[in-house]
Design brief:
The chain is of the alpha+beta class. It is about 20% helix and about 35% strand. It binds adenosine-5'-triphosphate. GO terms for molecular function: ATP binding; ATP hydrolysis activity; transmembrane transporter activity.
């Protein structure tokens, strides 16, 4: 069988006359997890619905292992699904819930498969319990086991841990990663939680307003964001308006000169937005060449780090994260200088609105 996984190619979709997906393209390699990530309403669930066959896209192709799914009926797509509301049958035991789609199998085989799946999701001891007596996390593990029971070709998960508290979420994320190491099932997971996406998926698909902004590994996306939107959505990005003054040189709106350590793809005079990550700024209480002048507002201790909130002269907020040990501690209203690691600054066209 061709090793082509799940492919979404040139998919458009409209609800009534409103187009909500615009030329969506991405692949999920066989046995890998891809997370669809983006703000509310950007079209993540719509893509999942199109893969599941619950809606038919206006245009484009969705294929699994080389087979075009577009014309295949929902029940013949062989997909496992896990949604935010667990949708378990409360009058059936955990084992019966998992066995639900397996009525066609001989009894012994069914039993063996259920017990293997319960082992996989670590719920063997709960086989005879009823869902209402389980915790949210346990119920969601039953839902995962049930989705896997029919040996699906791919797994679709829509905010599967969305209803759970933070600690449970991260426990289940770790479980999912462990389970994937065991069974390696091609999975598309929708989440609006960037930490969750980074924790479980090898590849992220970052979406905005129905368009794919970037596809890549968590590192690629963090280190080389393709757009200002991605830069600010994955992690924090400080933004400053600037003008290109020469090869690799910028002047920010408040007059700071920044010498980049690389040439920029912009002509002198171009209006740009330069962004910095908080952890790529270091703090000084004296003026430094190439440093961003700011006024200290407050600092919050985060373990070994200090998260600094400051203001640029035009009032724009800027954040820095520095090591706490022995570093300077300014007071509210003090002038500070934030020295950027220029190799890690990003520059984007300036016609975007700063938000
Ligand atoms: N059945 C529908 N009829 C009309 N518009 C819809 C329908 N379902 C979704 N939409 C619209 O399509 C757009 C994309 O919705 P979708 O549910 O795919 O977004 P999402 O990224 O999954 O959002 P969320 O994170 O809030 O679940 C939104 O503007 C939404 O209002």
């Amino acid at each position: 069988m061709a090793d082509t996984g799940l492919q979404i190619s040139n998919v458009d979709h409209s609800y009534e006359d409103k187009q909500v997906l615009h030329n969506v393209n991405f692949d999920v390699p066989d046995g890998k997890v891809v997370a669809l990530l983006g703000p509310s309403g950007c079209g993540k669930s719509t893509i999942l619905r199109a893969i599941a066959g619950l809606i038919t896209p206006d245009r484009g192709r969705i294929s699994l292992q080389g087979r075009d799914l577009t014309k295949v009926q929902v029940r013949n797509r062989k997909l496992g699904m896990v949604f935010q509301n667990f949708a378990l049958f409360s009058h059936m035991t955990v084992a019966e819930n998992v066995a639900y789609g397996l009525a066609h199998l001989p009894r012994q085989e069914r039993r063996e498969r259920v017990s293997r799946l319960l082992e996989l999701v670590r719920l063997t001891a709960f086989a005879n319990r009823f869902p209402p007596s389980l915790s949210g996390g346990q119920q969601q593990r039953v839902a995962v086991a049930r989705a896997l029971a029919t040996d699906p070709s791919a797994l679709l998960m829509d905010e599967p841990f969305g209803a759970l508290d933070r600690a449970l979420r991260s426990e289940l994320q770790a479980e999912l990663v462990r389970m994937q190491d065991d069974v390696g099932i091609t999975t598309v997971m929708v989440t609006h939680d960037q930490e969750e996406a980074q924790a479980v998926a090898g590849q992220l698909v970052v979406m905005n307003e129905g368009r794919v902004e970037q596809v890549g590994s968590p590192e690629e996306i963090y280190d080389h964001p393709a757009s200002l939107f991605v830069n600010g959505f994955i992690g924090h990005a400080n933004q400053q308006h600037a003008t290109v003054t020469g090869a690799g040189r910028l002047r920010t709106a408040d007059g700071s000169e920044i010498a980049m350590n690389r040439t920029l793809n912009y002509l002198p005079g171009a209006e740009v937005i330069v962004t910095s990550r908080p952890e790529d700024l270091s703090l000084s209480l004296t003026e430094q060449p190439g440093a961003i002048a700011a006024r200290f507002d407050r600092a919050v201790v985060m373990g070994r780090f200090l998260t600094i909130d400051a203001k640029l002269p035009d009032g724009t907020a800027i954040k820095a994260q520095v090591l706490r040990d022995g570093g300077p501690r300014p007071g509210k209203g003090d002038a500070i200088w934030l020295i950027p690691d220029t190799s890690r600054l990003h520059v984007f066209p300036g016609n975007n609105q700063i938000n």
